[in-house]
Amino acid sequence: xxxxxxxxxxxxxxxxxxxxxxxxxxxxxxxxxxxxxxxxxxxxxxxxxxxxxxxxxxxxxxxxxxxxxxxxxxxxxxxxxxxxxxxxxxxxxxxxxxxxxxxxxxxxxxxxxxxxxxxxxxxxxxxxxxxxxxxxxxxxxxxxxxxxxxxxxxxxxxxxxxxxxxxxxxxxxxxxxxxxxxxxxxxxxxxxxxxxxxxxxxxxxxxxxxxxxxxxxxxxxxxxxxxxxxxxxxxxxxxxxxxxxxxxxxxxxxxxxxxxxxxxxxxxxxxxxxxxxxxxxxxxxxx
Length: 287
Fold this sequence. Notes:
The protein is mainly alpha-helical and 287 residues long.
């Protein structure tokens, strides 16, 4: 059964497929098609209604673009050594979902068994890319429902929200690397201070960064979705400050402004499309 959300997914698929062209290769087109199939199937059941195909596309570029044109690896496992994961997790597929998240939560509705070994889990989901798209759709839906659609915390949850609220990560310049990178000798020293100095993942998702200038706001612009762009700007401006309550071991909202409003000067990537930068700066300034 068709639904408005599923019809929107079809429209976005047609538009995104046209605008991405050959830039992301056959693998990029494959990821977009799989995302369409998984998200659309859920939306025809009345699920994942807060999620749009453009959200999944923006996340896939951030997390898995390096796998797009490696067909033998695209839907399989990536080790923590390869991803420089801060806590040593193995991830799967272009959305880089962690093996434990798949085993314990998101894979369960799709046939994943908790008693499986990592090898069994990876083999199962690698052979079923559409299930990976459904799992990430469920993940983003849950984050948006809990923290606000396309909000700072809703997007940061994808990476590691608890550590961010505790001040353990993401306290450096917002566009600094979100991972602790190797030093000149090739060693990776994941110290508490190095983790604190990392960049703000959520802001990089919406605005892009040096390694990926095409953030969510760029893709909304390519879809001619100015209402969507305005919605992100307004949501970030309205976001209140949350802190980690150590006694309750849970996040706690404060009445203070969050300080997340996007400034025109934050729009500093995507040199290849100056018209996008000018339009986004104009929207920010008028909000």
